[in-house]
From TrEMBL, chain A:
<feature type="region of interest" description="Disordered">
    <location>
        <begin position="123"/>
        <end position="153"/>
    </location>
</feature>
<dbReference type="InterPro" id="IPR016135">
    <property type="entry name" value="UBQ-conjugating_enzyme/RWD"/>
</dbReference>
<feature type="domain" description="UBC core">
    <location>
        <begin position="4"/>
        <end position="153"/>
    </location>
</feature>
<dbReference type="Pfam" id="PF00179">
    <property type="entry name" value="UQ_con"/>
</dbReference>
<feature type="compositionally biased region" description="Basic and acidic residues">
    <location>
        <begin position="126"/>
        <end position="153"/>
    </location>
</feature>
<keyword id="KW-0833">Ubl conjugation pathway</keyword>
<dbReference type="InterPro" id="IPR050113">
    <property type="entry name" value="Ub_conjugating_enzyme"/>
</dbReference>
<dbReference type="InterPro" id="IPR000608">
    <property type="entry name" value="UBC"/>
</dbReference>
<protein>
    <submittedName>
        <fullName>Ubiquitin-conjugating enzyme family protein</fullName>
    </submittedName>
</protein>
UniProtKB/TrEMBL annotation, chain B:
<keyword id="KW-0863">Zinc-finger</keyword>
<feature type="transmembrane region" description="Helical">
    <location>
        <begin position="226"/>
        <end position="248"/>
    </location>
</feature>
<dbReference type="GO" id="GO:0008270">
    <property type="term" value="F:zinc ion binding"/>
</dbReference>
<feature type="transmembrane region" description="Helical">
    <location>
        <begin position="159"/>
        <end position="176"/>
    </location>
</feature>
<keyword id="KW-0479">Metal-binding</keyword>
<feature type="compositionally biased region" description="Gly residues">
    <location>
        <begin position="273"/>
        <end position="288"/>
    </location>
</feature>
<feature type="transmembrane region" description="Helical">
    <location>
        <begin position="181"/>
        <end position="198"/>
    </location>
</feature>
<dbReference type="InterPro" id="IPR011016">
    <property type="entry name" value="Znf_RING-CH"/>
</dbReference>
<dbReference type="Pfam" id="PF12906">
    <property type="entry name" value="RINGv"/>
</dbReference>
Length: 153, 579
């Protein structure tokens, strides 16, 4: 019996393949149940018009009880969007990826949330502590204990 | 849940759903499909449409509760926010154990704090013990073995509680004194003032009745003399020491000025090397600064300022004009601050100085600034002002030992001089209060029992009288013991004088060395004589005549240089500084 995480991810994958992703979100790679890649772009009027970013999901075996590790891919021609909650190394400070994660969310739901986070941005800027954080950031953003101070995310 | 199913219009439950989709694992179960093997229970824990396997949900709750950041959301539906209700077997004992655990947790945290505080306390008490031990040693050194055994004894458990404040404060005050002023003696005042009023421990040890623990102020000694010799510690600390200090500083400043031509810059604390603009600084460092400094150059500029004369003019030795200069100088330096500037609080006479200075002042003007500069250089050379921290602290902490050694020296000298012995009030061996016999007299002015017989008014009068007597005439204990402290204090004073003399000598010699400096001039041996522009009369080969004009010019220049070399110092001196 495959693990719960593999079973659930295969169901999510089937769903994506059957129903397609929401507008602006595309599945790039989902060869296994540990790392998935999506492209994400903001539709309509926004500061990020015409820009396309790559999102990386990493799952551990206790998904969906534990949240996926989600970040923007940086390097190899990819950059992270300039946003008050996105660090230049691609890490995202969003409560749904941390203490407000719930199994009711899914990979697609996370994509949509992040898409709307970008869409609602009013000023392109890095988080105030970007440099300090990036210097010491762990590889896995889940190991960071973010302080969520903005409810608009 | 079961209650609802029983209400008449039947409300559907999770078991009535056609397709159940676990919101956690996304597994589905059709109502008509055969149940899993083994069957898994379903639950609908909230008020929205989400359903889940009970096992999945319990696992989620359990995981979330383990994470402090997520625990607040663990028992809430992520969609409708309804609180999940857990039904479980929680006997009272479990709750009690949980409570006990929480209490232990809190105690543990408290212990952690206490531990940290304990480490700090151990560290601090270590320092405290060292300070106290030093203080005891200092007292023993300064007051002598006999007084130490009378007042404190070797056993700290006999010490009164005040000792544990007084002793550690001794090294601290010694060090602090070193950083405030150059004076050493005042730092010993704490030693002298603390113990005289305290009843000697030795006395209390020899008796053990409860009346002895009654702390009353000490009394007059048997004698009724108005003046005792040696002076009592209180008189010495409050009157003699400050007086001697003032006088000594003045004398020292005068001697320095006489020997060196000016006071060394380090004696004028805070005075910048520039013109007399350092008035504020000088006033700030008033403790050690008596304001006698030769900076007449400032006067010439600011002579019209009305000086508020503070200190007494330096007595006879300096010539009259110089005196005036100094007076104005003081006034100009710190108008309004003069009383601070003069530190010791002598009378302030108004002595306005106006108009042009007598020519003599201008004359002095031509030497002093340069002298001053040289002095500063000399001082720097022997680095009096820049002594290291260790040297200062170490020097301060050695004071008790030094005074002890000096006292011993005086004692051995007194064997040859009757006058000295009388001055030091050395007791013949064996007659001291505590000398061997171990009998210590009742140290109070009233006999035991007499006090209770007095009325309140008379008690107060008696007490005041005892305080007065104690401070003026000292207690019997102090009066009868060999006054080691007295010769030690005198010895320390002599040491300070000697040390200052050595410093002054050093400074004087360094200054002389600087002033006597010359650069030795060599002849032109080894230089090709044709490359030199020489005077026409010089025998030997000379340069081609084409350059003769240039030669002449160079000669003139050269000549000026030579003469200038001789007068150089005079010229430089005559340049007024600060203008």
């Amino acid at each position: 019996m495959a693990s719960i995480s593999a079973r659930r991810l295969s169901k999510e994958l089937t769903e994506i393949k059957n129903e397609g992703c929401p507008v602006g979100i595309n599945l790039v790679k989902a060869d296994d149940f540990s790392t998935w890649l999506f492209t994400i772009e903001v539709m309509g009027e926004s500061l990020y018009q015409g820009e396309k970013y790559t999102l990386q999901f990493r799952f551990d075996s206790s998904y969906p009880i534990s949240s996926p590790a989600v970040q923007f891919v940086v390097g190899d021609g990819h950059t992270s969007p300039v946003h008050p909650h996105v660090y230049s190394n691609g890490h995202i400070c969003a409560s749904i990826l941390g203490n407000e994660w719930s199994p009711v969310l899914s990979v697609v739901a996370v994509c949509v949330t992040l898409q709307s986070m970008l869409a609602s941005c009013k000023k392109k800027e890095r988080p105030p502590d970007n440099d300090r954080y990036v210097r010491n950031a762990p590889d896995n953003p889940k190991k960071t204990r973010f302080h969520y101070d903005d409810d608009t995310v | 849940m079961s209650r609802r199913t029983q209400t008449p219009p039947r409300v559907p439950t999770v078991n009535d759903l056609r397709v159940k989709l676990c919101y956690i694992c996304r597994e589905e179960e059709n109502y008509d499909a055969p149940p899993e093997d083994p069957p898994r229970a379903w639950t609908h824990p909230c008020t929205c449409t989400l359903v889940a396997h009970e096992s999945c949900l319990l696992r989620w709750i359990q995981t979330s509760q383990g994470d402090p950041a997520r625990a607040p959301n663990a028992l809430k539906c992520p969609q409708c926010g309804t609180k999940y209700e857990l039904v479980s077997y929680r006997p009272r004992i479990l709750r009690l154990l949980g409570l006990g655990n929480a209490v232990l947790q809190r105690i543990g945290r408290l212990l952690t704090l206490c531990g940290a505080a304990g480490v700090v306390a151990v560290f601090a008490s270590g320092i405290y013990i060292v300070l106290t031990a030093y203080g005891a040693w200092a007292v023993r050194q300064f007051l002598g073995e006999e007084m130490f055994n009378l007042l404190l004894t070797d056993n700290p458990s006999n010490w009164p509680w005040t000792t544990f404040i007084n002793l550690p404060s001794i090294p601290l005050s010694l060090i602090a004194g070193r950083f405030q002023t150059a004076a050493l003696i005042p730092t010993l005042v704490p030693i002298l003032l603390v113990w005289p009023p305290a009843p000697p421990i030795r006395y209390r040890l020899t008796r053990s009745t409860s009346a002895d623990t009654d702390l009353r102020f000490p009394p007059a000694p048997a004698r009724d003399a108005l003046w005792t010799w040696p002076p009592t510690p209180a008189v010495f600390g409050f009157v003699i020491v400050p007086l001697v200090r003032v006088v000594y500083r003045r004398v020292r400043a005068k001697v320095q000025t006489w020997v060196l031509g000016a006071q060394p810059p380090s004696a004028r604390l805070g005075r910048p090397a520039g013109a007399g603009a350092g008035a504020g600084g000088a006033a700030g460092g008033a403790g050690a600064n008596d304001g006698w400094d030769g900076w007449p150059i400032v006067i010439r500029i600011r002579a019209h300022v009305v000086g508020e004369e503070g200190g007494q003019p330096p007595p006879p030795p300096p010539p009259q004009p110089q005196q005036q200069v100094v007076q104005v100088q003081q006034g100009v330096q710190a108008p309004g601050l003069v009383h601070v500037h003069n530190g010791e609080g002598e009378g302030e006479g108004e002595q306005p100085q106006e108009g042009p200075q007598p020519p003599a002042a201008v004359q002095g003007d031509e030497q002093l600034p340069d002298q001053d500069q040289a002095l500063a250089a000399a001082e720097q050379q022997i680095s009096i002002s820049a002594s290291s921290l260790g040297r200062r602290v170490g020097g301060a902490l050695l004071i008790p030992w030094i005074s002890n050694r000096m006292g011993a020296l005086l004692l051995s000298l007194s064997k040859h001089s009757d006058t000295l012995r009388r001055f030091l009030a050395v007791r013949p061996a064996g007659t001291g209060a505590g000398a061997g016999s171990g009998t210590v007299g009742w140290p109070y002015g009233v006999a035991p029992g007499e006090w209770e017989g007095l009325g309140p008014v008379r008690q107060v009068r008696k007490a005041l009288g005892m305080v007065w007597a104690a401070s003026w005439r000292g207690t019997r204990t102090w009066a009868e013991a060999d006054p080691v402290w007295w010769r030690n204090a005198i010895g320390l004073g002599l040491f300070v004088v000697a040390k200052d003399c050595v410093e002054l000598l050093h400074l004087y010699l360094a200054l002389r060395e600087l002033e006597s400096r010359h650069v030795r001039s060599r002849d032109f041996a080894g230089v090709d004589i044709r490359e030199l522009d020489l005077v026409p009369g010089f025998p030997g080969p000379r340069k081609p005549s084409t350059t003769s004009v240039g030669v002449g010019a160079a000669q003139v220049e050269n000549h000026t240089h030579n003469t200038h070399g001789g007068q150089g110092q005079g010229r430089a001196r005559s340049l007024p500084r600060g203008m």
